[in-house]
Structure formats: structure tokens, C-alpha cells
Design brief:
The complex is a heterodimer of chains A (about 325) and B (about 325).
Chain A: E1 4-10, E2 14-21, E3 28-35, H1 40-53, E4 61-67, H2 71-78, E5 82-83, H3 86-97, E6 103-107, E7 112-118, E8 121-127, H4 136-146, H5 153-159, H6 171-183, H7 188-206, E9 217-220, H8 227-237, E10 241-242, H9 250-266, E11 282-288, E12 297-303, E13 306-311
Parallel strand pairs in A: 1-4, 4-5, 6-9, 9-10
Antiparallel strand pairs in A: 1-2, 2-3, 6-7, 7-8, 11-12, 12-13
Helix pairs in contact in A: 3-9, 5-7, 5-8, 7-8
Chain B: H1 7-12, E1 14-17, H2 30-36, E2 40-43, H3 49-56, H4 65-78, E3 83-85, E4 88-91, H5 100-103, H6 105-112, E5 118-120, E6 123-125, H7 129-143, H8 147-160, H9 170-174, E7 186-190, H10 193-197, H11 205-211, E8 215-218, H12 246-257, E9 261-269, H13 273-285, E10 292-297, H14 304-327
Parallel strand pairs in B: 1-2, 3-5, 4-6, 7-8, 7-9, 9-10
Helix pairs in contact in B: 3-4, 7-8
Classes of the chains: A alpha/beta (about 325), B alpha/beta (about 325).
């Protein structure tokens, strides 16, 4: 009987779940990529249901790791052995896939990251700051506007002979610019290619500013699917980008590996509550704490009528 | 103005000082100064979300978060007293200037808060000592008719506010081999004094870092000017125009030299013009020497993004140490 580690990455755009073989990190029995659609709990529920229906049993799970923007919420509900941030998870996965990796470019739904590694250790990283311009959500939106399925976005970009120049600093300006270029008679292909270049430029100017980008470079995250972006990066940097096999679930893969590490380190059995936990009735509630003048907004999670977690406080008293 | 004829003031005898921005800059005790003149000083309470919300309605959207919170402090004080003192710092040193928002603070406040109140201020330009002394004299004359008290107050100011200390404060000497380092090592946190001291503004970062097992040394523990001998001119550039940023710049230079400091975190606020310059310098110079993290904060109360960055920074340092240990 095979045993597995589960890695979950609950992001703003997609929820990814991987089932990693306990003996071999590289062997993924399952890699699910589910759209979050603003409802992390629902998407995870779907994911767990798929796994259960495929015949995996909760007893075979040795450990669970969670990452992504909703990691605390999900981790508390399902009982995760490791709750780690996306940067660490992505870096760990990248090192596992390519031990001598020096640069990781990760572009996800709402944030983009750059991780600089030397000899298998993260030495520097950067994330986009306040604005989400040039991330997956932005591309999604523009694909919708241009009426192109996001899956074909990259193909469109590659077909363009000469991309038009589009302002990439701000989504609002980029949209304005696109409309103007359309009116000037640019084709969809040219605009899409222009957008890809704008995104790559924006990333390199903001996130990657001042970093020494050395090969090998891994390009991961959902946006890596887009060949247009890969092309634009390669053109701008003058080097080849490596896209790992599981580029779109690297965060989940990393958190699976981190769960494995955590279990090995503590030598304790997993605290995973089983696939069924998600099928139970869980409710999220916003509550205002009125204990002091900070009036923090708390999130309260109830599973089957029982409060399992509460957080969002500045003082930390509800988190315990 | 003049000769203690300010009746409104004399009636209340209580002067409110908002705790924000330049308050944290002061190593001078205004409380003692006003006491000589026969007044009691009332400070505003710790910043809270309420403070911020009270202030936010008066402020234009282009102001930075610390200024918005400052407004809140003024509003809170106006419930207790009708007299507010806001020193107008224009320069801390000859040839450099304070942040424009700090320079214009008294006028900003006076013209945007509609409530009727008494605002007293004095321009303080530490590069021009006679000018500043004269301003202090005018301030004291507004508050008292007694020439002895006025003289004593101005003398007190003169003696206790002699520019910035050229000495290295004792705190800096703590940094070194002897310091009791947290499990995960020592990191430098740099930022403007209010960013480091007000937990509402910095979202409690300093405590979070301690929870992660780090020991901290902040830019406040570093000398300001005149200590170039201590910090070589690392970045090889002219004096910055803004003296609010100098402290940070010098602190970072010293931190880069200090082998005990394993990483540097820069706390800055969205829209800060001074920090924008500093950030560019740091990006060029720190990144390849020490782990460096720049946190841009604003009024967002969601902590997810912030925690992700701090956690990643902490993981980065811990995993690096772990690797070094395993290798050695």
C-alpha cells in the first residue's frame, strides 16, 4: 500500500493539491489545479472529494502541508502539520526539482515573486508590493476583455509578428492603452504580445529590480503556462527559462515536502483530520472584537457547530 | 502674541502634545519646558484604530499613514484641552531639511481641522541656533509674563537641545559579541523613529520578529551625524537632502559592517518621498551583502501579505543557518 504526503496551496486564483509519494518527492500521484473563485473552502472541498472518490484513504496520509494566502484558515480546519508561506514553499519545490537553481520567477494569481538562491539556500527574495498589475488575475481579465480563452493567450502572443508597446505599470493604464491601440488598428495578436512584454518588463522593473538574475532560472506559477510571457522574459533577459514539469502546482509540491520535513523532524503522527472534514458543515464569520480600542476584525471558523479557530487580532489573544 | 496676554491659554493651563511624527524625534523634554512656564502637558494616548479613524476624515488622500494618525492624535487631544503645541521642525542640521509634511504640520493641522482651538508652535531650525532661540523666546513670551520664567525656559531649551548628539549612544555599544542573541540571531530594523515606536503604524512588527526568535537592533540606536568616523562613507555619496533619512542611512552603513547583524529590515510607508530615495540606495547596496527586506506599509489592516514576507525572511535566515551548521 502506498503512503502519501499532501501539499495544499490555496491561492487567490487557484487551489492546488498534490499527493506526493512518501518515498519519492518527484512522484506525484495526483496534481489537482482547481479554480478558487473566491471561495477557498469550497474549492478545497471539491478537491478532497475528488481525491476520496479516486479511492485514496485518509489513513494513508502521513502528513499535510499548507501554503498560500489562505493557509492559516485552511491549515486550522484540516489539521496541517506544516503551515508555511508561499516563498519558502516555492523555493523548497524549486530546489527539489533542480538542486542548483539560482533564480526562481514565480507569477501567480495576485502576486509575483522572485527568489534568489545560492547553493540551495534562499539568499534574497522580492514580492510585488501594493499593486497586482502584471499578475495572473490581470492577464485573466484582459483575456476576458479581448474574448480570448486564457489557455490560448500564449499562442496568440506567439503568432504576432510585431508586438505593440503597451504601458504595463498599472492595470488601468494598460487597459486604456489597449483600447487606444485597438482603435489605431492593431490586431489582437499584436496586443496580446504587447501585453506579455509589458508584463515581463513590469516584473523585471519592479520585483526583480536590483537582483542579480543568474542561470538556471526556473519559471513557475500558473502564468508559466503562457508561452508568450516566457518568450517575453527570454527576449528581455537574453537567457533561457526552465519551466518545471509541475510548474502550476509548485507551491503545493513545496508544502508537501515541508510537511514531510516537519513529520521527520518531530517524529509525531500527522494531525490531519481526514478528507471528510471538508464535507462537514463549516461556517466563516466576521466578528468585531470590542475588547479594546483597536476593534480588530476577527475571523471565526466553526466546523459542525464547534469553533475551531479565530484569528485576525493584533494582540494575539484569540489565536491561542 | 506677546507678553503673556494670551488669555485663552492662561485660562486652560494645559497644553496638549500629540504623540506622532516629530514627537518621537524629540530627545528634548517639552514637558519640563512648559512646566517652567507654569503649564501642564497632556500627551495623547497610544495610537489605536480609533485614533486613525478619527483623523482620517480630515486628511486628504495624498497624505501618508503617519500623518493621518497624527491628525487622530490632535482630535483626541482636543477632547481634553483647547491648546495644542506642535513644534515646527524645519531642519535638524545645517544644510539638510526635515520631511516637508513635518515642516508644514502646524499649518496643515490649523487649516484642515475646523474645530476652534488654540495652536501654538515655534519654528525649530537646529542649523540656525540664534534664529531658533529667538523663536523659543517668542513662544515663551506667549505663555508667560514673568521674565524670570521666560529666561529660565529659553535657557533650559538651549542647554538641553544642542543639536544632535555626536556621541555614540550607549545602546549601540550593546551590539557586539556579548549581546544575548535570540535563537535565530540578530537583525537590524531601520525606519523613521515613529515607524519603529508606534505599534499601530508598524503593525507590531517588532514584537512579531521577537516571536520568531530574533533579537533586534534598530536604527534609533545608532548615532546620527558627526559619527562618520564610525561609519565609513559606504555608499559614497553626498549628504542626503532630507535629514530624516540620514539616521537610517548611517545606521544601515554601520549594520553592513557589523558581522553580528544577519539581516536588515527597512520599514517604510507608502508614498514616503524620503524613503523612496533610500530604498533605491539600499536595493543597490545591501542586497548582495546581507538578507534585506523592505516592508511598505499603509493603512491596510490585513496582515497576510506582511506576515508572508516576514515569515519568508525568517525562514530564509533559519534555513540558511541550518545549512551552514550541517555543512560545518
Amino acid at each position: 500500500m502506498n503512503q502519501y504526503y499532501i501539499g495544499v496551496d490555496v491561492g487567490s486564483v487557484s487551489t492546488n493539491i498534490v499527493l506526493m509519494d512518501s518515498k519519492d518527492n518527484k512522484k506525484l500521484s495526483e496534481a489537482l489545479y482547481i479554480r478558487t473563485n473566491g471561495q477557498p473552502l469550497e474549492s478545497l472541498k471539491d478537491g478532497f472529494k475528488i481525491l476520496k472518490d479516486k479511492g485514496y484513504s485518509s489513513e494513508d496520509i502521513l502528513g499535510v502541508g499548507v501554503t498560500g494566502s489562505a493557509r492559516v484558515l485552511i491549515g486550522n480546519i484540516i489539521g496541517a502539520d506544516s503551515i508555511k508561506n508561499e516563498i519558502t514553499a516555492h523555493a523548497v519545490a524549486a530546489i527539489d526539482v533542480c538542486p542548483n537553481v539560482k533564480t526562481v520567477i514565480e507569477i501567480g494569481g495576485q502576486d509575483s515573486k522572485m527568489i534568489i538562491l545560492r547553493e540551495g539556500v534562499v539568499v534574497d527574495f522580492a514580492m510585488n508590493t501594493i499593486c497586482a498589475a502584471g499578475t495572473g488575475s490581470f492577464l485573466d481579465q484582459q483575456a476576458f476583455r479581448l474574448n480570448i480563452p486564457i489557455e490560448e493567450f500564449g499562442e496568440f502572443a506567439l503568432r504576432a509578428d510585431e508586438p505593440v508597446r503597451i504601458a504595463g505599470r498599472c492595470t488601468v493604464f494598460a487597459e486604456t492603452d489597449m483600447v487606444h491601440k485597438q482603435q489605431e488598428g492593431a490586431t489582437k495578436e499584436q496586443i496580446v504580445a504587447g501585453l506579455c512584454e509589458a508584463l515581463a518588463r513590469n516584473y523585471l522593473n519592479n520585483v526583480a529590480k536590483g537582483k542579480s538574475i543568474q542561470e538556471p532560472i526556473l519559471f513557475q506559477g500558473g502564468v508559466a503556462f503562457n508561452k508568450g510571457i516566457k518568450n517575453a522574459f527570454e527576449k528581455e533577459l537574453g537567457v533561457q527559462l526552465v519551466i518545471p514539469e509541475h510548474f502550476n502546482v509548485m507551491g503545493a509540491l513545496g508544502s508537501g515536502i515541508l510537511a514531510k520535513e516537519a513529520i521527520h523532524e518531530t517524529n509525531k503522527p500527522t494531525i490531519f483530520k481526514g478528507f471528510d472534514i471538508m464535507q462537514k458543515n463549516h461556517r466563516l464569520k466576521r466578528v468585531d472584537c470590542r475588547d479594546c480600542s483597536n476593534a480588530c476584525e476577527l475571523t471565526e471558523v466553526t466546523v459542525a457547530g464547534e469553533i475551531v479557530a479565530k484569528w485576525g487580532d493584533r494582540c494575539g489573544k484569540w489565536q491561542k | 502674541m506677546g507678553n503673556g496676554k494670551n488669555n485663552q491659554l492662561l485660562a486652560s493651563k494645559v497644553i496638549g502634545i500629540p504623540r506622532g511624527l516629530s514627537y518621537y524625534l524629540d530627545n528634548f523634554s517639552w514637558e519640563a519646558f512648559f512646566e517652567i512656564l507654569g503649564y501642564r502637558v497632556e500627551y495623547s494616548e497610544d495610537s489605536s484604530v480609533e485614533t486613525f479613524e478619527a483623523g482620517n476624515q480630515f486628511v486628504g488622500s495624498d497624505q501618508c499613514f503617519p500623518v493621518k494618525v497624527y491628525y487622530g492624535h490632535v482630535i483626541a487631544l482636543l477632547k481634553k484641552t483647547t491648546t495644542i503645541f506642535i513644534p515646527q521642525y524645519t531642519s535638524l542640521e545645517e544644510g539638510t531639511y526635515c520631511c516637508p509634511k513635518v515642516i508644514g504640520l502646524p499649518q496643515l493641522i490649523k487649516n484642515t481641522i475646523r474645530q476652534e482651538f488654540n495652536l501654538i508652535t515655534a519654528e525649530i531650525d537646529l542649523g540656525r541656533s540664534n534664529f531658533t532661540r529667538f523663536n523659543m523666546l517668542l513662544l515663551a513670551r506667549q505663555l508667560s509674563w514673568n521674565p524670570f520664567r521666560i529666561f529660565r525656559a529659553v535657557t533650559y531649551f538651549d542647554q538641553n537641545r544642542k543639536g544632535l548628539s555626536p556621541e555614540i549612544p550607549a545602546a549601540e555599544k550593546v551590539v557586539g559579541d556579548g549581546q544575548n542573541q535570540g535563537n535565530n540571531g540578530l537583525i537590524g530594523v531601520v525606519g523613521h523613529p515613529y515607524a519603529l515606536q508606534d505599534p499601530l503604524l508598524n503593525m507590531g512588527i517588532l514584537n512579531r520578529l521577537r516571536e520568531y526568535g530574533f533579537d533586534l537592533v534598530t536604527s534609533e540606536q545608532y548615532p546620527r551625524s558627526g559619527a562618520q568616523t564610525n561609519c565609513p562613507v559606504y555608499f559614497n555619496r553626498r549628504k542626503p537632502h532630507w535629514d530624516f533619512g540620514r539616521n537610517i542611512l548611517y545606521a544601515v552603513q554601520s549594520m553592513l559592517q557589523d558581522k553580528n547583524i544577519q539581516g536588515i529590515i527597512f520599514i517604510t510607508f507608502f508614498g514616503c518621498g524620503i524613503d523612496a530615495f533610500l530604498e533605491e540606495i539600499f536595493k543597490d547596496h545591501i542586497c548582495d551583502q546581507k538578507p534585506y527586506l523592505s516592508l511598505t506599509l499603509d493603512e491596510h489592516s490585513g496582515e497576510a501579505g506582511l506576515m508572508t514576507r516576514i515569515e519568508a525572511f525568517s525562514d530564509m535566515m533559519i534555513r540558511k543557518e541550518g545549512k551552514n551548521r550541517n555543512a560545518g
